[in-house]
Write the structure tokens for this entry.
Amino acid sequence: MKKFFLTNLFFLLTLNILIKSFWILGIDRDVQNALSADVYGMYYALFNFTYLFNIILDFGITNYNNRTIAQHTQLLKKYFARIVPLKFALAAIYCVIVLISGCILGYSCFQVKLLAWMCVTQILQSFVSYLRSNITSLMMFKTDSVISVLDRSLLILFCGIILWNGNLRPHFRIEHFVYIQTLTMFITFLTALIVCLVKTGHIKLKWNFAFNLHILKDGLPYAVLGLLMACYNRMDSVMLLALVDDGGVSSGIYASGFRLVDSANMIAYLFSVILLPLIAKMIKENQKINSVVGAAFHLLLIITLGFVAISICYATELMESLYNKHIAESAIVFKILSFCFIPISMTYIFGTVLTANGSLKYLNLIAGLGMVMNIGLNFILIPLFKENGAATTSLITQSVTAILQAWLALKIFKIKFKWSYCLKILLFVLLVVIIAYSIRFIALNWIIRIIITLSLIVIAAFVTKIFSIKDIKALIS
């Protein structure tokens, strides 16, 4: 299982890092540079606003389905035929609520128009997530990996045609970006649907009220968890737009600082894509999960510490290479938010373990605490420190919830660490700090210094036995 996990994880990571890095550095950054900070800030806040209501779209169905089908694959055809009509009904309710909420908040006609298109994109994204939950439940991780980067690949193609054309770029507007996102997500949806239909065969959709009620009831804990996590993960930019009267500039600066962190978070999220069905299956078969969880923890530890070290030492250089405005402000936000990558990564491991185990009651209590902390601290810190206040709030909230989830997962599965292991981890952390700080002052190009730093961090991981040659041999044997 450990080898199966690592092999599929490396394929998933490689594909996503190649495509999504090009998207972030080559296209997404260019979109923000082509637009003013207030326009992009407005778009970013609206996007996160639609994200807050995703509980209605999904209602916990995706995670519930992923765990259930992984443990009982024979239910795929039955569930598929009944869940799809239910999701269409939830999509209609979602659209009505989001648009009415936008009108109540006083959004302009143009903003409501963008909201409507974003709603369509979110609906398609929700369907893609559900379809992918079936694909991963069948352990088709490589197929899922290709689908996971399809929308970004198409976005690179379509946006690149506009942004890299001297005649078309001056006419680029935020609404064009929104339309293209909808189109690429629709193509991705069709692709995922075809893959699922190949596995299920002919499907006759059925509206079954009793079944739907059962699914919604069983999915409710997952839905509540999704809502609470969305609130403390996505509320910052929405509250910035509401509490700071600067036309969305603070929200735009926050978005600039958050972009690389959000991209790094996607790497951690990919771990959960494989971990959830895999651990759910292992729990059902009474297999020990320690080796798989340990492998995931060690790999993410190397990635997170490397990212944070680079972010702190080269924040200004990274922001200068990405943007052409608000560099200093974005660099400060980026430094604060980069630390969030550590607790977020731990959440994607230990939170996923708890989800696979069905420990939703405890997860919801922790997430509820996170939401209350996030909203309360934002009301205090945003008026005082604007985007920096929002970033600090995010760091505090993510850290508290991650620590609680890790403690709970270790307690439930009775995973204990020896003092020697803890000292090994501390030694690795210390080496990362020394390496990053020392290389910072070498008279070389900053990109070369980053490459040297990351290379030495990987070597340090082998020296401290965080990762070993034996693990590499297990992958290729």
Residues 249-284 form the longest helix (36 residues). The radius of gyration is 22 Å. The chain has one domain: 2-416. Residues 33 and 324 are 6 Å apart (CA to CA).
